[in-house]
Design a protein that fits this description.
By secondary structure, the chain is α+β, with helices and mostly antiparallel strands. The chain has one domain (82-445): Alpha-Beta Complex (Transposase Inhibitor Protein From Tn5, Chain A, domain 1). It is built from 17 helices and twelve strands. The strands form two sheets. Strands 1, 2, 3, 4, 5, 6, 9, 10, 11 and 12 form a ten-stranded mixed β-sheet that branches. A two-stranded antiparallel ribbon has the order 7-8. A hairpin with a 2-residue loop joins β7 (255-257) and β8. α3 (24-30) packs across α7, α7 packs parallel to α14 and α13 crosses α16. It is globular and about 70 Å long. The two termini are 42 Å apart. Keywords: Membrane, Transmembrane, Transmembrane helix. It holds the Pfam family DDE_5. Residues 73-250 form the Transposase IS701-like DDE domain.
Length: 453
């Protein structure tokens, strides 16, 4: 077995220690990501992990002076294109390890959340990619060639950990440009993930949550935006023992209140007003058509008194401020998507045509983020260094109500068709703050300049 590590030796000590501390090799073996001869899977994984820190992509690595020490192109592509490696098991195993370590440093009273969201995985210049589809990009209001990257993450308000994902094509065959390759072995995990790509998004959300729970990863709440907060999915998640907090749109959906079936706007008019509070207009207790009790909080737009947002919670015991504060933790996943695309080369580093390659490379990108998030946690939270500081240090700061409210208020704009979009100025500010907090050696590795942070 060839295990050349010259390239790995150039990584900063902190990240090398992270590989050992989080037992990356063990998680790879647990997922069946092993080889009988040649370069070990761990050494290939390390090399691919390092690309973003040392080279722009694999092509530039092969053009470098160290090309003679690197595996051949065929070795790398066989690794990425394997349909037998269970990348989901690897990611779930690694993320559960990090979450376990994070939970050892926080009190049991601290709120933890699952966050669900999707982002466009663009392959707009491709034509022959397996399962390529025309998907709708809500930010540009246009269809693009690519996939929808549906992601489930975990957060305690400071550290975000991506747990699982599904790379969705389209359930509508008319929107799919290519189908599953006929040569794929139907017994493999790769084929099963291809079938998932054809699932409806709400069904996959529930499956991702189930995968996390089966792995022993738990949270107090599931946070969702308006695209997911619909009664059937809310009911199914609640049946798993999880509370849901999500923003809701003014649709035709009816809520039961005092025996009446009312729209969201009608509930707003009947809501109990928060006297003396400028930010939250009020709240109301209602019931979904499935019979599930919910509390809906209405938030004011300071710039336009006639506009408001509504946040639904299945935990009806929470105060209005606490519902807004917890929902504010959802922005962690927006930072994750932006950082992964801008700095970790999500959907950019390899342009292969196989679905397996997109799954494997996305998992490697998620691993990069997990290790960076873990190193940031250790930099900011001394309790991860040992039990010596356990009772001497305060917990890393949770998101407070004021911060959550400011982020929420930023959503207000004059909207067409009752759609809600994120203010890019506020979002860019949040991302910049997160990048600024990164340790210096990570910024140096990712070539992030001071002006970018």
């Amino acid at each position: 077995m060839i295990t050349k590590k010259e390239y790995f030796a150039q990584l900063p000590k902190e990240i090398k220690d992270g590989f050992s501390e989080l037992q990356i090799g063990k998680h790879l073996r647990k997922a069946g990501i092993i080889k009988a001869c040649g370069y070990s899977c761990l050494s290939i994984f390390q090399l691919l992990f390092l690309l973003v820190f040392q080279y722009r992509n694999w092509y530039h690595a092969l053009q470098s002076k160290k090309a003679a020490d690197l595996p051949g192109k065929d070795t790398i592509y066989r690794f990425l294109n394997s349909s037998t490696y269970n990348w989901r098991t690897f990611l779930l195993s690694l993320s559960s390890e990090v979450i376990r370590r994070v939970k050892q440093t926080i009190s049991k009273r601290r709120v933890t959340v699952f966050i669900v969201d999707d982002s466009i995985y663009s392959r707009n210049r491709s034509k022959s990619v397996e399962l390529l589809a025309k998907v709708f990009d809500h930010s540009t209001r246009q269809f693009v060639n690519g996939f929808q990257l549906l992601t489930l993450g975990w957060s305690d308000g400071f550290t975000f950990v991506p747990i699982d994902f599904a790379l969705l094509s389209s359930a509508n065959q008319k929107n799919r440009l290519n189908e599953i390759h006929s040569s794929i072995d139907k017994r493999t995990t790769g084929y099963k993930r291809r079938l998932e790509a054809l699932e409806a998004k709400p069904n996959m959300v529930l499956k991702l949550v189930e995968h996390a729970l089966d792995k022993g990863i738990f949270a107090d709440y599931v946070l969702m935006d308006t695209w997911f907060t619909h009664a059937p999915l809310v009911e199914k998640i609640h049946s798993k023992g999880l509370f849901v907090i999500g923003m809701v749109k003014q649709l035709k959906q009816r809520y039961l209140f005092n025996g009446e079936r009312l729209t969201l706007e009608q509930l707003y008019r009947k809501a109990k007003r928060d006297i003396g509070k400028k930010e939250t207009l009020g709240s109301i207790h209602a019931t979904l058509h499935t019979g599930l009790p919910v509390k809906i909080v209405f938030v004011r737009n300071r710039n336009n008194q006639s506009e408001w947002l509504a946040i639904l919670s299945t935990d009806t015991t929470l105060s209005n401020e606490e519902i807004v504060r917890i929902y504010g933790m959802r922005w962690d996943i927006e930072t994750f998507f932006k950082f992964s695309k801008s700095f970790l080369h999500l959907a950019k580093e390899f342009q292969g045509r196989s679905y397996d390659m997109m799954i494997s490379h996305t998992t490697i990108v998620f691993t990069r983020y997990i290790l960076i998030a873990w190193q940031l946690r250790k930099e900011e939270d001394p309790k991860t260094m040992g039990n010596l500081f356990l009772f001497l240090c305060d917990e890393v700061k949770e998101m407070d109500f004021k911060t959550a409210l400011l982020q929420l208020i930023s959503l207000f704009q004059t909207l067409a068709e009752a759609k809600v979009y994120l203010s890019m100025d506020i979002f860019q500010c949040q991302l910049s703050n997160w990048i600024t907090s990164l340790p210096r050696y990570i910024k140096d590795c990712l070539h992030i300049s001071v002006c970018e942070s």
